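Is magnesium ion placement plausible here? Inputs below.
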Amino acid sequence: MKFSVAVLPGDGIGPDVVIEALKVLRVVAKKFEHEFDFRYGLVGGIAIDQQGTALSPETIKMCKKSNAVLLGAVGHPKYDDPKAKVHPEDGLLALRKGLSLFANLRPVKVYPALVDNTNFKPEVVKGTDFIFVRELTGGLYFGRPKKQWRTSRGRQAVDSMLYSEHEIERIVRVGFEIAQGRGKKLISVDKANVLESSRLWRQVAIEVSQDYPDVELEHMLVDACSMRIIQNPRYLDVLVTENTFGDILTDEASMLAGSMGMLPSASLAGVPKEGVKIFGMYEPIHGSAPRRAGLNMANPIATIMSMAMMLRYSLALTKEAEVVEAAVEQVLDEGYRTYDIMGEDKTKVGTGEMGDLIVAKVGG
Ligand code: IPM
Ligand code: MG
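Reply from A.M.:
I modeled the complex. Tokens:
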């Protein structure tokens, strides 16, 4: 089959890891006789430098005309000045909003091979396998008002955690659908003891649960959830939460897997269903790590696993996705490690070698 993929490498290590994912995708194409048409675009700091905007209208148009988007990372310290008018991150947010990618799936899986390579006791992280469903186009990131102003008693600023019933309903539904295909338990994370938007979230979650009598719904406060993630991660299976909570909790959760460099993500415009193509954007959860850029150091696994999610959700190529996932697991089992997941008696490799090893397994 023939597919078109918009490729936005972005900043820092983004291009380093995206190249590896494309290498793997090319061998998938060869093995399974598919054709991928890659269309390259700029986003983030590099787009600001070259096009004067973090995301040009042409780039977003190109993404809309593709079957899926593969993205590296955005961000550069030169734009970190809080007074800066443009931020590389604006490009990413414009993509998420402009492409209506409201459902962000972030699986957190601890590979058996990495159980001894985390900051936690092996018996705590062993067997961890859960998935976050993060709302991606609402809440504090996009709510209005959002501004700074001066008063006679100093400056003030506001961000708005705004949610409509419709936005909550559709993301909670994604949570229930995924829970139905897994352990039939959904944890909805909120701060309903304090926040009004969370109270609405909880009410809507309860209403939607009527449509899923086979799934048990549990409500968990976000502070308790942050504790539970590291206290007993095996307790978790499917979690659904709003944008900012999901952002923070998934960085925390990535530590269970050993490194941010291990966690993939899919941002979807609809409810994922086996064998059905949903438009989506795929990116690692890590940032652009500018200090590591171009050094053949970064771990490409999160991006390669994101590409596998693309095969599964946007291209409905389940078998192909499984082959890539199995290849990653085998390479880890054989003891190959990038610097971020290095362990005793393991073989240290760079970004390119890790990609080549996975390519060899997929192709073999
Ligand atoms: C993420 C990132 C982004 C976010 C940044 C880069 C805007 O941290 O995807 O988790 O906050 O959503
Ligand atoms: Mg984040």
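Short version: The mean pLDDT is 97.
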